[in-house]
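User: My instructor asked us to take a sequence, write out its structure as tokens, and then describe one feature of it. I'm not sure where to start. Here is the sequence I was given:
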Amino acid sequence: MRLSSIVPVAAAFLVAAVLSLVAAGYAVSAVEQGSKSVVRQELVRRGMEWVTVDTNGLQVFLAGTAPSEAARFNALSAAGSVVDAARLIDQMLVAEAEDIAPPRFSVEILRNESGVSLIGLIPGNTDRAALTGRIAEAAPDEEITDLLETADYARPDTWSDTLDFAIRALAELERAKISADADRVKVTAMTESRRAKREMEETLSRLAPAEVGLALDISAPRPVITPFTLRFLIEDGKARFDACSADTEAARERILAAARAAGMEEDGENACTVGLGVPSPKWATAVEQAISALSDLGGGSVTFSDADISLLAQRGTPQERFDSVVGRLENELPEVFALHAVLPETPDEEEAGGAPEFTATLSPEGLVQLRGRLPGARSRRAVESLSKARFSADSVHNTVRVDEDLPSDWPLRVMAGIEALSHLSNGAVTITPDSLRIAGDTGQKDARARIAGFLSDKLGEGAQFSIDVTYEEQLDPVASKPTPEECESRIKAAQEDSKISFEPGSAKIGGDGKKVMNEIAEILKECGEIRMEIGGHTDSQGREVMNQQLSQARAQAVLNALRARRVLTSSFTAKGYGESQPIADNDTEEGREANRRIEFRLIRPESVAEADDSDTGKPGKEEAAADAAEPADGTAQTGDGATDANQDGAADAEQEDNTDEQD
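Assistant: Let's start with the prediction itself. The structure tokens for your sequence are:
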């Protein structure tokens, strides 16, 4: 009886215990799943998908590889915001430092009247003192503001070359922004003239290392012309400009049209400069009227110096015609302009025979001889000092004698003549009481205009002078140097009859190839520093890998041979293309012969538009298309196959280098 009553009670307790265990299990599972879900949702919301979440009871385990220590800490904070931080178990790892992508190093150099500013991120092992010292050498006497940040990562391979070029570019530019990163430099600057812009672009292109991309944005605003000068002459029935300035393109066209109507046959467009500083918006009108008046007189010269006009009729012009033409011109000219007209008297022949004279001659070798008359020892010393300052002390030979009976303005005119002569490479200036004549050759395209503006400013109204100056391209230090494109073309022409040959299966230049190398070296010495790639190519016979190695060794051998011949090759690069760029059919012997070649190809700066499309420093679409074209200018062909490439190519190249030096 007692036993039967205990059994139901025990069974009830047992069932209750089982139900409690089941309920507890479900509760624990619900807590685990809830904690896991809420933590996972919070981490995903914060962009931390790399974290894996697991639970065991009340404990929440966080695992995964954090990209940085900060990211690991942020993950713990995110999980702790939705569950008790005491329940979190951190099993996360942090990625090794070398696996983290390095930052993008870059420097922006700003130079203006306030000094030089350095902004950007550079490698931590950069010598800051040495860097600012080099900047100070490139921009002396200017304040340098260093705003650079550093990061402890290895510097890119091309970083030093890029930074070196950026500093060299800084030394060439007084006002500029130079942006440099690991493999590209962008230069933004302004020059004073189109000529200076052209020269700067060529200089920077030559200086840039071959492996560094270059983008140029150099502008040339209209120059400020002071004084605003124009000089037009009609001599012996021929009309020409010694100097021409205009304030707008339309004004230039009007002035040129008036000159052609007066008999000018040559194209004076390049002689007429559009610039700033015009004294009146009616400049073109005044010039048209003055040129027309000079044409009506039949000859002479008209010179504008700002708003002052000097009209000098030719000797023998009838007085009545002179008075009529000058009177009409005075009434027609805009109010701002002032006219000074002179009709020279016909000199008495006896007086002309004994007229005093001063002459200064400049020889092509740079020797200066002064002879004639000056009005005193003091003037003699002043002229000699000026000549030595403008040329050199050792090159001036003075045989001037003293004559007290000279016009009062004689020393001024002599000094102006010496200044004008300094614009020439060789020539002479002759001064008489009523004229100044300068003649000779020059390497400056605008020398005639400069001399005309200078003389009209110094000698004043009514001064009579003539300029017979000839521009000679071979005397121009810029124009006489062949352009990079001309160098490329000349290299190609040098190789049309003979090609750079190598010993079979080797990178050693053969005997016939050395003659071509000597000719190419002489061309490149005239060209100076240009950016050029020497590309090696083979036919398709043999293994592809071996062909590529052989082509690289041969391109390097050519580069070494140029260095041995004292060619500037700091901006050259050698690259082997193997059989990847055939220019003919490899199934024929003629085709294989054509494919075995060395190519000399210019590396051109990127245009600014292309450079702005990408920060990678890679060439733009047009440049890439040019690279893919076949064949490039400057193609040379090698004289043997690429079937037996060997491992001694580099050694052969070095041997060739040593052999060339002995030659």
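For the description part of your assignment, you could build on this observation: The longest helix spans residues 2-45. Try explaining in your own words what that tells you about the chain.
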